[in-house]
Design a protein that fits this description.
mainly alpha; about 180 residues; two-stranded antiparallel ribbon
Length: about 180
């Protein structure tokens, strides 16, 4: 949902197909991305991107969507769609349309992404003292097979492989995966 704060129209109008090449910000963004890839220092990469996106910031006000996302996050993705629609007092179908419009995914897909992000966060906060079974259980996966299958469906990598490759930079829950 965060990208909605940097675009001036609904996300589903910006991303009309799979997310593999993003041209919305035009040539200026391409130049910044080139600088980011040329930069060797990771903190400088973050600074370049932060500077660009600070200039792009716009107001985004969709209270039902915000409340829905807060509820999904507070339950770590465990809330059902029907429960969520009751919680935010909106028709299920309207809720589904709202998610598709501003996140370009269904409520169910968003819930799964929250579980995935929860696993990343938990691992990085506890990587010295935890194992993958603990990460899976904390993130509310049914079992190890569900955990692995879900990670592969999102990242094409097993949890062990992906978690060893990503880096946490900055103050937010932003993870980077740079290929050499």
């Amino acid at each position: 949902m965060g990208i909605n704060f940097f675009i001036d129209k609904p996300l589903n109008e910006v991303l009309t197909s799979d997310f593999n090449y993003f041209i919305y910000f035009g040539e200026e963004f391409r130049e910044v991305v080139t600088q980011v890839f040329d930069e060797k220092n990771l903190e400088n990469k973050v600074a370049l991107l932060d500077k660009f996106f600070e200039k792009q910031f716009v107001t985004f006000d969709e209270p039902i969507l915000k409340k829905s996302i807060k509820t999904i996050l507070s339950t770590n993705g465990a809330i059902k769609v029907s429960e969520l629609s009751e919680e935010v007092n909106i028709n299920r179908k309207t809720l589904l349309r709202l998610f598709k419009k501003h996140t370009n995914m269904s409520v169910e897909e968003y819930r799964k992404m929250v579980m995935f992000r929860q696993a990343l966060n938990y691992f990085h906060q506890n990587k010295e003292t935890t194992n993958l079974t603990d990460v899976a259980l904390f993130s509310m996966y049914y079992d190890q097979a569900h955990f692995i299958k879900h990670f592969k469906s999102i990242s094409k990598e097993t949890p062990n492989t992906l978690l060893s490759k990503i880096s946490h930079l900055g103050e937010e829950d932003t993870y980077w995966y740079f290929e050499e």
